[in-house]
Specification:
By secondary structure, the protein is mainly beta. It has one helix at residues 116-119; strands spanning 11-14, 35-45, 48-53, 57-61, 76-88, 91-102, 104-107, 109-111, 125-132, 135-141, 151-157, 168-176, 190-195, 206-213, 217-223, 237-240.
Length: 247
């Protein structure tokens, strides 16, 4: 194999306990309190970021942090942080960021007869999916490729109304292996988050998403709660910090 099995060398095993640190009569959090949350990144200026957490709400870095990389507006990720103060200058909490594991973040794309082959519809090992923070968040497994990254897409048919006759927004999860797979499963989970800001969520009954499951066949997943709590399956995320095999 041209690709080295490098996943055992560097592991980011992040246990998302969504730890709720306690606050004693406004005296602040205890030194050393550690919390985790699924967040959306907001770029304030060069190298300065704030966050909106699915559990903790809006967060401001009350203690300075030097990031070793640049983040784009709207990127989703798993944030490890020290909570410092509640109600911090208009934010729900002031924090000291410790670590951010960015996730692949994409938009919902239009599916047409002309581009359908690009998205394919290969069987996928989806572990869980939920809507929170304005995103469709998906946790899945995959068989490792030799060379090519696999493409993971959330699409809507361009020739159909955004909201169907049943009142739901109809989407399809599409998986393209490009014919490059091995029989070896990635030992770590993969995560992808899709921004739903182009969809009229407040006008629909919910979302129906078609999934071609490698285990169960064709399925339709229904989402009616647009602000779901992080599911149990996502509270123990074991992801590699190596370059991802998805795009």
């Amino acid at each position: 194999m041209k690709r080295k099995m490098k996943y055992g060398l560097w592991i980011c095993a992040l246990v998302v306990g969504l730890f709720q640190a306690s606050c004693d009569d406004g005296e602040g959090y205890s030194i050393g309190d550690i919390a985790y949350d699924w967040v959306t990144v907001h770029v304030q200026s060069d190298g300065v970021y704030t966050f909106t957490g699915d559990t903790w709400g809006t967060m401001f870095p009350a203690a300075p942090t030097v990031w070793g990389y640049r983040l784009a507006e709207g990127t989703r990720g798993l944030l490890v942080f020290n909570p410092l103060y509640d109600d911090y200058y208009g934010y729900d909490v002031g924090i000291k960021p410790q670590q951010l594991r960015p996730f692949l973040t994409k938009t919902v794309e239009d599916l047409t007869d002309a581009n359908e082959a690009e998205y394919a519809n290969h069987p996928a090992y989806v572990l869980d999916a939920w809507v929170a923070g304005g995103y469709m968040n998906m946790l899945f497994n995959m068989k490792m490729p030799m060379e090519k990254k696999h493409r993971v897409s959330l699409v809507k048919r361009a020739d159909e109304p955004v909201i169907g006759e049943d009142g739901y927004i109809h989407l399809e999860y599409r998986y393209n292996t490009y014919g490059d797979t091995t029989d070896v499963f990635n030992p770590y989970e993969e995560v992808v988050c899709y921004n739903l800001n182009t969809l009229p969520l407040d006008e629909a009954e919910g979302i129906k998403m078609k999934v071609n499951s490698a285990v169960y066949g064709e399925q339709t997943w229904v989402f009616e709660n647009m602000n779901q709590p992080v599911p149990d399956e996502a509270k123990n995320v074991n992801v590699s910090i190596e370059e991802s095999d998805i795009e």
